[in-house]
Amino acid sequence: MARCVSRRTRPRGPEEYEVPLPTPPPDDPRFPAAAAPRAQSASALEEAVTACRACPRLVAWREEAARTKRRAYQDWDYWARPVPGFGPPDAALAVVGLAPAAHGGNRTGRVFTGDPSGDAFFAALYDIGLASRRTAVHRGDGMELYGVRITMPVHCAPPANKPTTAERDTCRPWLARELELLRPTLRTVLVLGGFAWQALLPVLGDAGWRLPRPRPAFRHGGEVLLADERDGGELRLVGGYHPSQRNMFTGTLTPEMLRDVLREAARTAGLPQR
Fold first, then answer.
1. Residues near 157 by Cβ (< 8 Å), separated by ≥ 6?
2. Smallest Cα–Cα separation from 104: which of 115, 117, 120?
3. What is the DSSP letter of 21?
């Protein structure tokens, strides 16, 4: 009788016995850290993000805003979920903001859509040829971005537009994975505001981008060139004031300043402009 002979020449390593652990439920604080790395595409990441309920305070706030509504939006069916990134998955320029507005992105389901910040931002993108429309109204309005993807450190609307550090850190894996998926084409990141700047730097450091010491401080128009320790590539950070209603109203940021910083970011990313 023929004898069956195993062809294995070495013992199994521990990794061959490992079974992927199940993803914690969406209301578990560990959900982003477990689910984000498993997303193999931008669309898969967007789907996972919108299911998240990991931060109880943010969940309560976004849903309360959807129940009470503003008088002008009484006929709206609010999105009331985390707002995913928006733009092509092979963008050369990423724009990192802060978080959705309670009656803006939290209502419309798209970042910078339906609030004064978005009115200023999309108008500037359109003026330099990076957006198909001057105004963004809702998710189905046909808006397209050219070579630009918008994301944020916190994907839920926070009370008073102020996420806690714990909420920022819980949400961090989504930003890290989105930038990793963009990495093959990404050349420049425009960072809107000091909160986004401070949230982004450790994400980039953990991903293998060499940060200067001391770490660069945020300033409008400031630029920092980072080297990729993996393959020697480069990534440029450009700082810009956030187009918040307050910044635009006080003149801290003007439409001209916003267009200028967008033009510089687009230029360094190699994007055509008009």
1. 58, 61, 62, 65, 83, 99, 100, 101, 102, 104, 105, 106
2. 115
3. P
Give the residues across from 188 on adjacent strands: 93, 236
Q: Dihedral of CA 104/46/165/180: which sign?
A: negative
Q: Is 17 helix (H, G, I), strand (E, B) or coil?
A: coil
Look-up of token digits 């187009």: 243
Q: CB of 52 within 8 A of CB of 82? A: yes
pLDDT of residue 21: 65
Region 83-89 average pLDDT? 98
- Nearest Cα residue to 36 out of 178, 233, 230, 154: 178
Place of tokens 């092509």: 88
Residue in the block written with tokens 């969406």: 26
pTM of the predicted structure, to 2 decimals: 0.91
Could you give the CA distance from residue 237 to residue 109 in angstroms, rounded to a whole number? 27
**Mean pLDDT of the 8-28 span:** 63
Starting at the edge strand that comes first in sequence, how are the strands of the sheet with 148-151 ordered? 148-151, 93-96, 188-192, 234-240, 223-228, 209-210
